[in-house]
Amino acid sequence: MSSPSPAPTSASPDPAGPADPAPQAPAPRKPPRPQAVLTVVATQWLSPHLVRVVAGGPGFADLQECEATDKYAKLLFARPELGLVPPYDLAALKHELPAGDRPVKRTYTIRWLDHGTQRLAIDFVVHGDAGIAGPWAASAVPGDTLVLMGPSGKWSPDPTADWHLFVGDDSALPAIAAGIDALPSTAVGHAYLEVDSDAEIIPLDAPDGLAVHWLLRDGRAAGTTTLLADAVAAGPWPEGRVDAFVHGERGAMKALRDVLFKGRGLEKKQVSLSGYWAYGREEDTFQAEKLEPIGRILED
Hints:
This protein is of the alpha/beta class. Helix content is 17%, strand content 29%. It is built from six helices and twelve strands. It has a seven-stranded antiparallel beta sheet. It holds the Pfam family FAD_binding_9. Residues 33-158 form the FAD-binding FR-type domain.
């Protein structure tokens, strides 16, 4: 059904028609996030596939303030042969260089950050020559440059929780270790950590009341097992309100989403849940898919 015509008004119509709207000023461009240019001071292999890079220097002062426990930063990696000097003007380089020659961003957890010594540590999972950040970390030596933006973060352990739950694979191990470090000595709960073998188990300074369960893939590819979801579904579930930190491969996180929300009836505010990577996906594809249905772990 058509809408009724508007009633006539007493005003005479403008023969020239309505005036063109005033031109809108372009929206101001957000200032670029500051980049901290740090220098590698040490590296340490924690396990056959996990290397820690410690970096610091005057650029430490350019880091953002972040009180969250799950501090994460955007690392910038530039192709050495191009001779780009940090901090990088990313906006200008977007117009000056083809996509394959621009610095690439990779998101990593800051394992620890010490304002006193002006140093931080980042743990990298390394699988041979695959990827960008892992091979860089595997070959890093003192004096190398590490460029990052951040850190940012949202989660810290809930001090009012009755118990704590940590769940994740190799990629989440640094963040979970930082979370465990932040617990009081009286904290209780469970941590389920998936790695390949006994050789990948690392020491954790966990409270006596936090039971740490190492789940071994035994040669199966990361991202192809149901170890985490199966363990949480079948494992003990203490009484009281839980605070859960659950991160890792996207498919595994979707399975855990169902265990925690459908099976255990948790509320979203009790759970920090996200995918750090996706099996069979390159990093850039994985990041792009975060905006698509396949990439969403939780609905808004």
